[in-house]
Amino acid sequence: MGLFSCFTEGMSVEIGTNYTRIMKNGIVLLDDSSIVAYRETHDENVRHCFCAGIECYSYDDPEEVKYLYPVKEGILADFDAVVFMLREFKKRLHSSIPRRLLVATPAYVTAELDIRVFKEAIEMAFDKVFWKKYAVSAPIAAVAGLGYDVFDDSVAHCVVDVENEMSSVSLVCGGKLLAVNKCAEVGLIFNDKVIEYCKTNGLLIIEPSTALNAKELLPGGENECVVSCINLKTGVTEYRTFERNEVEYWFDSSYKKLVECFKECMEEKSITEKPIKYHLIGGASQTIGLKEYMENATNCSFSMPNEPDKVIIKGLDLLNTKPYIKHLSECGSLF
Prior knowledge:
The protein is of the alpha+beta class. It has helices spanning 5-8, 79-90, 112-125, 138-145, 192-200, 214-217, 251-266, 290-298, 311-319, 322-330, and strands spanning 10-15, 19-24, 27-33, 36-40, 47-52, 66-68, 71-72, 75-76, 100-105, 132-137, 156-161, 166-173, 176-184, 188-190, 203-205, 212-213, 224-231, 237-243, 247-249, 276-281, 302-303.
C-alpha cells in the first residue's frame, strides 16, 4: 500500500434509473444499464432473476423473458433486484474492493431511510462490511465533476440534471445543497410500436437525448424521425427511420415543465447573493434544442460538458478522498 493510498482508497457508486456506474481512483470499473432480466415462476410471488445490464437484451425469447428497472425516480424500488444486479456487476469488476464507500443520491432523495437503503444494498451485494459508508447529494458531486471547487462559497452553482424519468434543478454553494426542485420526464417519448419494433429486431434505443432530427441526417425527411440504436448482436450503432406519427414529440411541453421547475428553484436564490453559474448535465441534457430553449426562456447562459451523463460519477470519485470526506462532513453534506 502506497504512502498516499489511504487518501484515495475508496469506491464510488452511482445507481441511477438508467445506468449504474462504479469508479475507483479515477478508473471506471463499471458503466452499465440498470436493468434486470427475469422469468416468472409457478409462484406469482417469486421471480427468477438471471441477468443484469445490457446483456439482458441479448436473449431471443422475448415471450418468456421480462425486464425490470429496479430504480425508479432515484429510489430503490425493488431492493432484492438491485442486490442481484449489483452482484452480477461485481463479477465484472477486475479490482479489489476498498473499505470506504461513497454513494451519490439524487438531490430530491433526502429521507434517511431511502439513503440508508442505498448503502445496505451495495454492502449486501458486495458481501463486504465497509468501514465507512457515506452518501452525498448528486449535485454536489456534479460541481466537482465539472471541475469547480466544491467548497468555494464565493459562487453558487445551479445544476440542471436532465434525465428521462425525473429531472431536477439544484442550487449548490460552499459544499452545501441550498435548494432543489424536481419535475417529470423531459425529451422524447417512444410509443409502444417503436419499442416493440426495436425489441423484435434486437435493437436497444440509445438515450432519447441522442435521437436525431431527420433533417440533420437525411435530405428532406420532414415527416420522418431518425433514431440511433445499438444493434445488440454486433454492438454497432445504427440509425432507423420512423414516421413522425410513430414517434411522439412533446419537446415543447416537456421543456416548459423544466423551465417552470428551474424558475421555482431560482425563487430560492435569494438565500444567496453570490453570482451563479448554470450547468446542464444528465443523460437527456443533449436532447435536441434543449440548451437553446433553456437559455432563451431563462435569459441565463448554460454550460454543458462533453460527457454530461458522467459528471456525477467523476465528481464522486474526486470527492472520495479523506480530506474531501472530512470537509463534506464538516459542511453537513454527508449522510
